[in-house]
Amino acid sequence: MTLEAALALDAADPLAHFRDRFVQSEGLIYLDGNSLGQLPKATIAATTELVTKAWGERLIRSWNEGWIDAPARVGAMIAPLIGAEADEVIAADSTSVNLYKLIVAALRRDPARTVVVSEAGNFPTDLHIAEGAVAAVAGAELRVVERGALAEALGADTALLLLTHVHYKRAERFDMAGWTKAAHDAGALVCWDLSHSAGAVKVELNAAGADLAVGCGYKYLNGGPGAPAFLYVAKRWQDALHNPLSGWMGHAEPFGFADAYAAAAGMKRWLTGTPSVLGLGALESGLALWDGIDTAQVAAKSAALWNIFHAAGTAAGLECVTPSDPAKRGSHISFRHAHAYEIVQALIARGVIGDFRDPDILRFGLTPLTLSHADIWRAGEMLVEIVESGEYRRPEFAVRNAVT
Amino acid sequence: MTLEAALALDAADPLAHFRDRFVQSEGLIYLDGNSLGQLPKATIAATTELVTKAWGERLIRSWNEGWIDAPARVGAMIAPLIGAEADEVIAADSTSVNLYKLIVAALRRDPARTVVVSEAGNFPTDLHIAEGAVAAVAGAELRVVERGALAEALGADTALLLLTHVHYKRAERFDMAGWTKAAHDAGALVCWDLSHSAGAVKVELNAAGADLAVGCGYKYLNGGPGAPAFLYVAKRWQDALHNPLSGWMGHAEPFGFADAYAAAAGMKRWLTGTPSVLGLGALESGLALWDGIDTAQVAAKSAALWNIFHAAGTAAGLECVTPSDPAKRGSHISFRHAHAYEIVQALIARGVIGDFRDPDILRFGLTPLTLSHADIWRAGEMLVEIVESGEYRRPEFAVRNAVT
């Protein structure tokens, strides 16, 4: 691939105009949109308006002027990106807190089913939260097995199969329909963590027959740092499952001020405390960009970007750990190298921001809305230069940060 | 009290200059700062800077440039307002979610103690969450009794006494030291909900020997709508108690990406998911205003504002349900009236924003930093006029909103 070829792909790219709707810094190629998505330009004005007008001037009245419905409204905007109905998704809390709610709820559905099955090496908070959730249900336990042993771990005692759709490190994608069926065949529910899927790949929760899902607002959805997360409960489970974090915002009548809890109908019961209005506002602004986008075009561009960067990484001698079949991966690419940390730091020093993941993974987010083919080509050239020249061996690149 | 007398109090008020540090709307007297605090002017620039620079330009690097420490940093700013040490407080999630964490943790401390005691008519989410929390611990139960029966409800089976320090509706304040001692005498822990106390009255958690506390960032702390909440764990309990919502941000090594959960030392274990960075930023800006404020002056001004508005309400024939002893109340005042809802609506139509609380309470927040004595005098005059003239009987004031 030459730069000219990359520029030609940009010229023909139907999504190319989205890049200018995000704040771009001169000299920066940001390959970490799968960790924190870039800032949509429109979000600057939206946040200022929310702060100065809705909070500053309208004050408490704003709860009646849009805030109280924001969790459901934002959820409805996420729904088409994950193959759900508008009234099956709500924005709330963090991914971790939402996972806790759904795992406990699934465990309480049927006392005879006591086991949560998940994958070793799943995103840590999924396993950590599952540990906490099983402790909240008498007799429940967490069974964490290697991917190859998942199928045989499902059985008559399984309450829930808890999987992350696209692996945070290697970008491997589970076959959602296949694993949902496997869980159902065992009589269990399935919960999908869509943190690296929503806005990255085509997700079809309802077509796959999925039961539960959670996901993150601050990655491909560009909702801002620590944006509210979301949760999905298939309509057929909405009456049967209950939120263990039974706070007033999930009450059938939050402003009735009754002592006893009574769960709201539909998705509202999955709310707990007062939602982060600033966070919801920024997330809503980020989601507005997705209106009308053809996710097939997003997937096609992701694949094209992937091919360019895969070629560069391979040329640099890195071992790619992400599946080459686009249907079996997300929208990031990861390589293994003994000096992964130093190479990532050397790239950052050159203005190419990727991610290091312990112990030896270089991870690069290929976000179709914010990146051009030429961006990826240029980043790939730098990767090759840094590895081939040994530039990454400079001592300053070995200094560790708190967050990487 | 005459307007001249109120203006004279303003002229002598050492806190008077704070009023101009908040966005004030022409013609509005905002007596709802105990529901949603006003916008500090400095927060507009702080939020814009956070969005455009830290998110927009620095992107993921900002986690290493201040974001990762924000929960502890903000907690340390709250600590002096509640009589705690800097390393006993952390900002996280919502008040409801934090209540769940602490109630479950307290119940798990000693399996022989299975009962959470709380007050009927406590703020609903405290009771709702306690209902959810006892369901997460085998054999645990919630015992909700009238205030007069609390003392006898404490016993050898009590794990936790859960009280709201200043009542959300009537503003009655519990004697923190006395009730903490009563809980300890029974061998139980105490958890204080400080939502209507922090920034409103002098709170002395450590002097009272308190064990646990939670509170709200969006009321007197002016942190913005749905601001992150906080939690306090006395140092002597920090090793023994564990967060049931065991997410990655509370892990000893969040970026070690291990499968097994290992709790962080100190307050960090009370974090769960990725924190709301926008929310923390606005809260931090609101808290900066409190730096160096003498809380004795805050209490004195609260009492002076209270006297002015109490006189007006009484003149209007309303029944005051808030204790007259300043040491036994918070910084809001509540009246009972059969047409409470309509009177509140009539006041709002005149630009005086108070709160209605079901079924018959008018509630007015008297926030010492944002209000002048003359503001309160003028609002009192309007209250008298509205009641005496029967203005509140106009049909439009009977129309109910979703949030009141």
Detailed description of the structure:
- Chain A is α/β, with parallel strands linked by helices and about 400 residues long.
- Chain A has 2 domains: about 5-40 and about 295-400, Alpha-Beta Complex (Aspartate Aminotransferase, domain 1); about 45-290, Aspartate Aminotransferase, domain 2 (3-Layer(aba) Sandwich).
- The first copy, chain A, is about 35% helix and about 15% strand.
- The first copy, chain A, contains 12 helices and 13 strands.
- The first copy, chain A, has helices at about 5-10, 40-60, 70-80, 95-110, 125-135, 150-155, 175-185, 205-210, 275-290, 295-315, 340-350, 375-390; strands spanning about 30, 90, 115-120, 140-145, 160-165, 190-195, 210-215, 230-235, 320, 330-335, 350-355, 355, 360-365.
- In chain A, strands 2-8-7-6-5-3-4 form a 7-stranded mixed beta sheet, with helices on both faces.
- In chain A, helix 8 (about 205-210) links the parallel strand 6 (about 190-195) and strand 7 (about 210-215).
- In chain A, helix 2 runs antiparallel to helix 9 (about 275-290) and helix 10 packs parallel to helix 12.
- The model of chain A has no long low-confidence stretch (mean pLDDT about 95).
- Chains A and B meet through helix 2, helix 4, helix 5 and helix 9 of A and helix 2, helix 4, helix 5 and helix 9 of B.
- Chains A, B: Keywords: Hydrolase, Pyridine nucleotide biosynthesis, Pyridoxal phosphate.
- Chains A, B: Pfam families: KYNU_C.
- Chains A, B: Belongs to the kynureninase family.
